[in-house]
From TrEMBL:
InterPro entries: HET. This is Heterokaryon incompatibility protein-domain-containing protein. It comes from Glomerella acutata. Residues 2-148 form the Heterokaryon incompatibility domain. It holds the Pfam family HET.
């Protein structure tokens, strides 16, 4: 069993795996030198009895121009999909902030009302219902963490206001708030994505896309959210969505073409940017001109 970590780097990392540190890291990684977010994740694993954790900065050789890095990134669907759970450090803006520190108490304005509750054993109590939205977190601004969230079957999320357990089902949080599936991708895309995220039984005929979304395309709903996020390197625009695309292709049997899908490419070519296209078009090659890969803007 192993856990995976999803977090915000917040800039260059002083502790990361490189060709020069690989052999040293294989022997020992000093705990006290790790960024606080990674330290906190190790503590969570220890408390839950999990002996192994996958952290991108330490498990992928980070040297630029390293071919192995591309190969390891391609394994991300399997890493996050097969992990016992993903630790999501939603509240931390950087790897050095950590996420286990005390939170501010709920104010009265944050609370909605108490709902009476009774367990199957007859135990009576109450659940505090809060607003459906849990608030925007730093992790929601990062491009890479989008597919990490979607590819994970189970998530322990440490947010600014609460801790949530998500298992691709509407599970109550510690305060009783049961945000829809906890995926944060919007109602239109959620039902379709739940099937994509399953590692098994991804048959083309096993799900009817016609009933899964209020939007014209569940893929379009995902692209809307993904492109609103930021990347440290815009050249990662295709890579940071590649795991999601791979799952989509397995499910639908469709052919992926630089962010678009062959069966619906005539409609998907009608994408547009929210800001001036010339201003946001990349000066380096990120994809063909007809693909949203080629622009650094919300689509």
């Amino acid at each position: 069993r192993f856990a995976a970590l999803s977090y915000c780097w917040g800039g260059n990392q002083t502790m990361q795996c490189e060709t020069s540190t690989l052999e040293v890291f294989r022997k020992d990684i000093p705990f006290e030198k790790l960024p606080r977010t990674i330290q906190d994740a190790v503590k969570v694993c220890s408390q839950l009895g999990v002996n192994y954790i996958w952290v991108d900065a330490l498990c992928i050789i980070q040297n630029e121009g390293n071919d192995e890095k591309i190969l390891e990134i391609a394994k991300m669907p399997y890493i996050y999909g097969q992990a016992s759970f993903t630790i999501m450090a939603s509240r931390a803006k950087t790897a050095w902030e950590g996420f286990l520190q005390d939170r501010e108490s709920f104010s009265k304005s944050d609370l909605s009302f108490l709902l009476s509750w009774q367990s199957e054993k007859g135990e009576k109590g109450s659940i505090t219902l809060t607003e459906m939205e849990t608030g925007h977190e730093p992790i929601d601004e990062r491009g890479w963490t989008f597919q990490e969230r979607l590819l994970s079957l189970r998530i322990v999320e440490f947010g600014s206001r609460q801790t949530r357990w998500t298992c691709q089902e509407p599970i109550p949080s510690i305060t009783g708030n049961d945000k829809l599936y906890g995926l944060g991708v919007g109602e239109g895309a959620t039902d379709g994505w739940r099937k994509i995220a399953e590692p098994n039984d991804l048959r083309q005929d096993s799900f009817n896309w016609g009933h899964c979304s209020k939007t014209p395309s569940p893929w379009g709903a995902l692209v809307d959210i993904y492109t609103s996020r930021t990347l440290s390197f815009n050249t990662d625009r295709a890579l940071a969505m590649s795991g999601v695309a791979e799952r989509f292709a397995v499910l639908t049997g469709d052919e992926y073409a630089a962010g678009l899908w062959k069966r619906s490419i005539r409609d998907e070519l009608l994408w547009r940017v929210e800001q001036n296209e010339r201003k946001n078009r990349s000066t380096v090659y990120q994809g063909p001109s007809w693909s949203w890969f080629a622009v650094n803007s919300s689509v």
